Amino acid sequence: MTTSQYGVEDASFQAAGGEAGILKLVEAFYRHMDQRSDARVIRAMHPDNLTMSIDKLTLFLCGWTGGPRRYGKKYGPIAIPSAHAHLPITEVEKDAWLACMQAALQEQDYPPAFKIYLLTQLTVPASRIVQVRQNRR
Q: What family name appears in the similarity comment (predicted)?
């Protein structure tokens, strides 16, 4: 599959291995968040028990990648920047979040082009969170 096909219908969801593949990615992501010193600040923004955080991110990413849209049914609608506006997220925290995701992606058996595509796409909402936070000051 070419990079240009990711993001069309459920191509990204399928490239990620469906819900099981996304869950595996999310679990690796939070494991890196627990282990990386550069992620301490963002880890502290989460509850000690990550069960709900894992579920939320998994369901969100499933829908975001073109798979089943179950996040809203379970947790209600989400606007990523405003949902995170109460948190002190700067470029430093954004970069730590993305570093955890990049490390988690490297562990997945995804096509290399998909890993690059997904990280690039995730940078957009992550940057938007920082931008909205800066505009509220």
A: Belongs to the truncated hemoglobin family. Group II subfamily.
